[in-house]
Amino acid sequence: MKRFDDLPQPDALAANIAGIFKDRVTGKAAPATRFTLFDATGTVHEGGFGNAGAAGDPPGPGARFRIASCTKSFTAAAMLLLRDRGRLSLDEPVTRYVPALAPTLPAGRPEAPTLRMLLSMSGGLPTDDPWADRQESLSAAAFDAVLRAGVRFAAVPGTRFEYSNLGYALLGRVIEEVGGKSYPAFVTENLLQPLGLEETGFDPAAVPAGRMATGFRQTEAGWQPLPFTGPGAFSAIGGAVTTTADLARWANWLSEAFRPDAAEDGPLSAASRREMQHIHCVMTPGPGEDLRLRGYGYGLNIEHDARFGAIVSHSGGYPGFSAHMRWHPQTGLGVLAFENATYSGAWIPVTAALERLLEAALESETPAAEPPAAVRTLAAGLCRLVADGWDDALADTIFLENVALDRPYAERAADLAAIREKAGTPDVRNMKILPTDRGGADGGFGRFELHLPASAGTIVAKALCGPPQPTKIQSITWQL
């Protein structure tokens, strides 16, 4: 974990990040913004700029904003809570609880999406932001009427990612059917209250006077205020209203599930919280994205950045509002922000701000930990194979049995001898062992590289350790 105060020049870093959010207001992306930086200890820096209407100028700590689709993380947590209590199975078809939905694909033998598919945005329903964002206050009867009239499927359930608000509205109905009360009441009683999120709710009209930010739409004549919608059948897709402080506590509670010392506090286990933050449906990274992998978990997006590793996030866009929350489980650093303008793109400054934090964290990284004794022993044996020549008996102490079966020792010995001839005399005293399993156990040395300098270059051995104890190597490649 990384403490914000331990990063290089934290005061200057905080001021620099605050400038990112201030520029959003001066650049007229939104009338106002409220942001929070947090680490494993909680909120470390926050601020607000611009005019939030009734909530003040600038918005203060108590200002409440609509967070739109960031609400989906609460919906997913509620579903896992019911699953963990034995009330439902994620692999049941949603039609068990919402029989008004009629599946249409595949043609001739249509299949209903499972609860797991809907959670991971692989339920086959079409992307629907413009339409769904106007359905929040829909009554249960009107929702049933929409379903009975027929719903279009864009793909066979379970075959691809397709962001569906309707899918999460269906999950909201499941929560009501199984939980025995309205979606807002279930989430409030089972998640918000146990976690002390007292400034989070689902009805803008219930927010104390002077606290609810006004949402705006940009027009040629200026910022036009928009009316609020109240709770209804689509609250589960984006109906939450909260403060940056409350949402930071929620995000930190989700993030802390990855910490080795995480306490089993709160209504949902650390294992289930981690489950929310694992990819369950893969997405194709967009053009220019420096990502190794991207996908949807349960109510959350997960990206594997080439520099920083896994990053968890979710955006929210609603008439009058934009929100984004984003954190880095490995360090515990996170950023979130609200803006009071329709689909203004709060993800843009939040992404930039977290990138600044993570760059500073990389800059402050301490040298890699010493490798475990078992890995040092393996590396010493690899050095002997290079310096003294191949020895089958020594190789047996380094490698698991599959290594000789996958490729005979004689062939491996010949390859290593050819590399040794090109490299020249090795300098065993200056060899280095580098971990390559970023974020893994044992300091990341479950995969490691041995860098062995020689008179004509550096010999590199890339090793992957196997499951059995004592630790041995199951895969090895050499290069010069």
Query: How many strands in all?
Result: 16
**What name is given to the CATH topology of the largest domain?**
Beta-lactamase
Could you say what the CATH architecture of the largest domain is?
Answer: 3-Layer(aba) Sandwich
Structural class: alpha+beta
> What would you call the shape?
globular
Q: Round the Cα radius of gyration to an integer and report it.
A: 27 Å
* Biggest β-sheet: strands ordered side by side in the sheet: 2-1-12-11-10-9-8-7
Domain Beta-lactamase-related: 21-344
InterPro entries: AmpC-like, Beta-lactam-related, Beta-lactam/transpept-like
Pfam family, one: Beta-lactamase
Protein name: CubicO group peptidase (Beta-lactamase class C family)
Descriptive overview:
This is CubicO group peptidase (Beta-lactamase class C family). Pfam families: Beta-lactamase. It comes from Shinella fusca. With 480 residues, the protein is an alpha+beta fold. The chain folds into two domains: 261 residues, Beta-lactamase, CATH 3.40.710.10; 107 residues. Helices cover 33% and strands 20% of the residues. The protein has an eight-stranded antiparallel sheet with strand order 2-1-12-11-10-9-8-7, sandwiched between helices. Strands 13-14-15-16 form a four-stranded antiparallel sheet. The protein has a two-stranded antiparallel sheet with strand order 3-6. A hairpin with a 7-residue loop joins strand 7 and strand 8. Helix 1 packs antiparallel against helix 11, helix 2 packs parallel to helix 6 and helix 2 packs across helix 7. The longest helix has 17 residues. It is globular. The protein starts with 9 loop residues before the first helix and ends with a strand.
